[in-house]
Every structure is written in structure tokens, then in C-alpha cells.
Design goal:
Blueprint: H1 3-6, H2 9-14, H3 19-91, H4 94-110
Length: 114
């Protein structure tokens, strides 16, 4: 005997394995799949947004690194110019120091012309 002969026709349609239960299970599956697809879409959008933010941060970091390098280079050049000026002052001849001394002293006493 087959199972269809044992189970009454009404019970086959409405029972735990009937077409109504099967349809309800498929509907649950479709709803779950729709929710999953919506969540995947949101996650994909969030990931794209985060990638854009990460790229912007990398560009900002690179610009900051370049700026720091330019500032360090500028400070190095200033120190080099100060060192060269100090060397020139130290290497000035004795005669130029003696001849400029009275003028420098007068400048310090009377002040510079405005």
C-alpha cells in the first residue's frame, strides 16, 4: 500500500507535510532570502563607503607626510644658512673687523637710521 492511500485527502493538504505547510515553508524561505539580500546590499554599500573613507585618509596621510618633509627640509636649509653666516662672521679678516668696529659701535650708540 502506498502512503497516499493511508492518509486521508484532507489531512494531506493541511497536515505537517501537506501543501499548506509546504507553501508556508517556502514563504518563510522567500522572506528570509529577501531579508538576507537587503542586508547584503546594506553591507556592500557600507563596505564601499568605508573604502572611500580609507582612500581619503590615505591621501590625507600622504599629503601630511609630504608637508612634514617640506617643513623639515626648510628647517634644515635655515640651519644651514645660519651656520654659513656664522662661519662667514668667524672667518672675516682681522682688518675688516678693526675697520668696521667704530661704525658698529656708533650704530649701537646712536641707533640705525630710519
Amino acid at each position: 500500500m502506498e502512503a497516499d492511500d493511508i492518509v486521508p485527502h484532507e489531512r494531506r493538504k493541511n497536515g505537517p507535510y501537506g501543501t499548506a505547510a509546504l507553501q508556508e515553508a517556502w514563504d518563510k524561505l522567500y522572506r528570509a532570502r529577501a531579508i538576507l539580500e537587503a542586508e547584503q546590499s546594506h553591507l556592500r554599500d557600507d563596505r564601499i563607503d568605508f573604502q572611500g573613507e580609507i582612500e581619503a585618509l590615505r591621501k590625507r596621510e600622504q599629503a601630511l607626510t609630504e608637508r612634514e618633509w617640506r617643513i623639515a627640509e626648510y628647517e634644515r636649509l635655515i640651519e644651514l644658512e645660519k651656520a654659513e653666516a656664522a662661519d662667514r662672521r668667524e672667518n672675516a679678516s682681522t682688518i675688516s673687523k678693526l675697520t668696521r668696529a667704530p661704525f658698529d659701535m656708533a650704530r649701537s650708540v646712536f641707533g640705525t637710521k630710519k
